[in-house]
Inverse folding.
């Protein structure tokens, strides 16, 4: 952990706001007296989860439409932590909503940030094991395709042109490390 003094926030104001995003302008003064104005996207203080579900020796991936890339992306189930939930509860809910399973065992692998220079959001990555069928209704506009993938073929997954999301790639490596593969 760094022992450096964090910069002083001299001013902070919202410069743009939409249904999903809030952009803040932050005026900072660093310990060497240099001042800068940064823009950042303020995230939800609730956080988010991503889950690496394992059914036996298979990973269960979700294929769903991603508006940002205008493509059907292959990745792990994910979503926001709802008010009143903790990460484990949200992870199990997302599993049931997106792939139709619940987990008897959820292990927190790591909390990640995405582009911390611009985003304040955090995502908890979980490994889900001992899955049993259980479906909850989600908020997705169309059913998500569930694609089983043999854990032994994880290197081929990295080559799949639809498996590109950096958080899913990171989650895969965290799971492999945890499983000592």
């Amino acid at each position: 952990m760094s022992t450096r003094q964090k910069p002083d926030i001299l001013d902070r104001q919202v410069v743009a706001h939409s249904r999903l995003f809030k952009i803040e302008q932050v005026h900072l003064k660093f310990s060497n007296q240099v001042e800068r104005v940064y823009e950042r996207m303020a995230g939800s203080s609730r956080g988010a989860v991503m889950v690496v579900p394992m059914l036996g020796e298979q990973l269960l991936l979700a294929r769903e439409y991603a508006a940002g890339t205008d493509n059907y992306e292959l990745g792990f189930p994910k979503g926001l932590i709802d008010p009143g939930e903790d990460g484990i509860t949200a992870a199990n809910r997302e599993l049931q909503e997106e792939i139709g399973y619940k987990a008897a065992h959820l292990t927190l692998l790591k909390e990640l940030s995405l582009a911390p220079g611009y985003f304040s959001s955090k995502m908890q990555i979980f490994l889900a094991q001992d899955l049993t069928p259980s479906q909850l209704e989600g908020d997705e506009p169309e059913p998500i395709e569930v694609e089983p993938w043999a854990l032994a073929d994880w290197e081929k997954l990295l080559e799949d042109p639809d498996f590109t999301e950096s958080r899913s790639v990171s989650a895969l490596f965290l799971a492999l490390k945890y499983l000592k593969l």
Q: What stands out?
A: The two ends are 29 Å apart (CA to CA).
